[in-house]
UniProtKB/TrEMBL annotation:
Belongs to the LDH2/MDH2 oxidoreductase family. Keywords: Oxidoreductase. This is Malate dehydrogenase. Coiled coil: none annotated. GO terms for molecular function: oxidoreductase activity.
Length: 433
């Protein structure tokens, strides 16, 4: 099916280009046909069970209790050699993502990003946590390519404690690894009455505006603030128009990548998801920055923000920047560690005004935003940052667990076969009954 989808997208692109070269009645006729095509696609989208592409396969899901999922993730990491305490913290980060509906950074990352990399010796299950330098408000940490899911929380906790004592603080780390959903860290900060900010670099995926070579990571820039709403303000965005985890999710669900998000070295916009993932690995494809390809829709802004995160994640801690984080030795093809950098900032709200006043100020404005005039052609609702994640939490409670797609069920079964201790403890999963 993916080949059919990509051929359809390619034909649509060619017809669109042709319509721009035609004039008069011919151009109008072709434009009307394209509009009709889009309208038919939209109508099939509305009736599809789980996929916006009619020809894509139906994906099977199973509801897995979150307590079970967290315990399984912790046990799997322990089986891979991660110490118990560190595995517990890591499982909490992954659980946060799944519970909040950030499915690209939960159980879906356990095997490919953590278990496989430990087994490939490019992520160390045990490593020193070295404080290279420290003041009352700052710290530089070296993670020695240990588990980012433990290094990140420890750095954020250190940052929050410094901020509560001194008003504000910043902790940076070099030689870490993938630290999971960035929203988890700013959520920790806002729960302690702080404004939280974090960012991380990543393996090169984004091409700079007017370029086609991947030079920047998806480099999220993330903010969190307490509010008197039922949920905090949490903005967790990659600085690419999309991120690799979402494309991996498209692949698991058999979906094409929407046009305008990926460009290859020949300047072609790509939609063939499975091949895109392969070409991202080799550097033949790049993600577009926020705003998309070129400057017309403001792609240079996303490119600029990605660069800011890169500098705060690499230059400040004297670490490696994204072009050096490919993860593969170009000469031998051997897999290599990707020593990432992160930064964490915490600001104690009470140093400026009473926390309840701040919560009210934040909540009042966000409610005004949500209650502002709606687009009559839109969904009839305006969201503010953190609201969808809150709905994810409510949905998780309603279902009694997390919806796990078939591909991740297979991952869980594969992990079970890797380790005798996991096989012994989990001889049969609930979704296998």
């Amino acid at each position: 099916m993916p080949s059919i989808i990509s051929e359809s997208d390619a034909l649509r692109t060619k017809l669109t280009a042709l319509s721009k070269r035609l004039t008069g009645d011919d151009a109008d006729t072709l434009s009307q046909l394209l509009d009709k095509w889009e309208s038919l696609n939209d109508s099939t989208t509305a009736t599809a069970n789980s996929d916006p592409v009619q020809s894509a396969p139906v994906v099977k899901y199973a509801t897995v209790k979150i307590t079970f999922l967290r315990q399984f993730m912790q046990d799997a990491l322990i089986a891979a050699g991660v110490p118990h305490n560190e595995a517990s913290v890591a499982a909490e980060v992954l659980e946060w993502a799944d519970v909040h509906g950030v499915s690209t950074h939960g159980i879906g990352r356990l095997k490919p990003i953590y278990i496989n990399r430990i087994n490939d010796n490019i992520l160390k299950p045990t490593a020193p946590f070295d404080i290279v330098s420290e003041t009352e408000t700052t710290a530089v940490v070296d993670g020695h390519c240990g588990l980012g899911l433990f290094i990140g929380p420890k750095c954020m906790d250190m940052c929050i404690e410094k901020a509560k004592k001194q008003g504000l603080a910043m902790v940076v780390v070099r030689n870490s690894t993938h630290y999971g959903a960035a929203g988890y860290y700013v959520d920790k900060a806002q729960q302690r009455g702080c404004i939280g900010i974090t960012g991380t670099n990543a393996r090169p995926s984004i091409a700079p505006t007017f370029g086609v070579q991947p030079m920047l990571g998806t480099n999220p820039m993330t903010f969190g603030m307490p509010s008197d709403d039922d949920f905090p303000f949490i903005l967790d965005c990659a600085t690419s128009v999309n991120q690799r985890g979402k494309i991996e999710k498209y692949a698991r669900e058999g979906k094409p990548t929407p046009p305008g998000q990926v460009v290859d070295r020949d300047g072609n916009v790509r939609t063939d998801t499975v091949q895109i993932l392969k070409d991202l690995q080799t550097g033949y494809c790049s993600l577009a920055p926020l705003g998309g390809v070129g400057a017309e829709m403001g792609g240079y802004k996303g490119y600029g923000y990605a660069t800011v995160v890169e500098l705060l994640s690499a230059a400040l801690q004297d670490g490696l920047n994204s072009p050096k984080l490919g993860g593969v030795n170009k000469e031998t093809g051997e897999k290599m560690p990707m020593p990432l950098g992160h930064f964490f900032i915490a600001i104690d709200v009470e140093r400026f005004l009473p926390i309840e006043r701040f919560r009210s100020n934040v909540g009042t404005f966000l409610r005004e935003m949500r209650n502002s005039e709606k687009d009559p052609k839109g969904p009839g609702r305006i969201y503010t940052a953190g609201e969808l994640e809150h709905e994810g939490v409510l949905e998780c409670k309603k279902l009694g667990g997390v919806q796990v797609p078939e591909a991740l069920m297979n991952d869980m079964c594969a992990i079970r076969e890797l380790y005798p201790s996991i096989l012994e403890k989990y001889p049969k999963f609930s979704f296998e009954e």
